[in-house]
Structures are given as C-alpha cells and as structure tokens.
C-alpha cells in the first residue's frame, strides 16, 4: 500500500507552486477563489497517489470527504470555536468562510481527475 510515485509527486510539487503563485499574486474574483479550489483537490489527490498505492476511486473519495469536511468546519465556524482565528496556518488549512460554490469546485476538480485517470491511464492504481 505504501510506495513512492515520482510522477504524482512531481505533479504535487507543480500544483503546490501554482497554488502558491495564485495565492500570492492573484486577487481576483474567479481564478483565486474557484480555480484555486479545483486545483487544491487535484493537488491533494496527487499527494495521496505519491505515497499510497490506492485506486483512483479510493483516493478521490478520501480527497472529496476531506474537502467537504473542511468546508463543513467553515460552516460551523470551527476555527473560531477552537480559538485559532489568529493562526495563519489554521486559516490556510481550514479556511474561514463557507461557500456552496467551493463544494462545486471540489467536485469539479475530482471529476476532472477521475475522467483523466480513467481515460489516459491503463492501470488506474
């Protein structure tokens, strides 16, 4: 189950750099909030596939459940209830505002990954 896949890891690093650049330099109303959310689930998927030999479906379910969990924590104002509203790391990981459109962006990102994996990869594990 545990293994290292350099291709997925390379994608993880590239997506992390893209997310960082988006965060630092784009302050618009479309790419940063929505395309960034599409990319972040793809990044998480690639990270999981970098270290674990799990199926496309398993990795996708893990990522979408985690993403929805984070979004639900935002809806419940968990960051404030835990007293972490001043923590930059907590804000980066948990976020601070719930949006139905974020959930749609997560589903879109996972849908893109699954379609790509099923279409272009002969061995989806």
User: How many structural domains are formed by the residues?
Assistant: 1
Our Rg estimate from Cα atoms comes to 15 Å
Number of strands: 0
Indicate the low-confidence ranges by residue numbers. Answer: none
The N- to C-terminal Cα distance equals 10 Å
Indicate the percent of residues in helices: over 70%
SSE series: HHHHHH
Number of helices: 6
**The biggest beta sheet, please?**
none
What features would you describe in this structure?
The protein has 125 residues and is mainly α. The chain has one domain (6-120). It has six helices and no strands. The chain has helices spanning 6-25, 31-51, 56-75, 78-81, 88-94, 100-120. The longest helix is centred in the N-terminal third of the chain and has 21 residues, at 31-51. The model has no long low-confidence stretch (mean pLDDT 92).
């Amino acid at each position: 189950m545990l293994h290292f896949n350099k291709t997925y890891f390379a994608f993880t690093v590239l997506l992390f750099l893209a997310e960082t650049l988006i965060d630092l330099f784009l302050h618009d109303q479309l790419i940063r909030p929505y395309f960034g959310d599409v990319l972040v689930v793809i990044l998480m998927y690639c990270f999981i596939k970098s270290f674990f030999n799990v199926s496309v479906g398993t990795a996708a379910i893990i990522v979408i459940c985690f993403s929805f969990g984070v979004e639900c924590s935002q809806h419940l104002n968990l960051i404030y209830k835990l007293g972490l509203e001043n923590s930059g790391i907590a804000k980066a990981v948990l976020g601070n505002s719930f949006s139905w459109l974020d959930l749609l962006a997560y589903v879109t990102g996972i849908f893109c990954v699954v379609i790509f994996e099923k279409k272009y990869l002969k061995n989806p594990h």
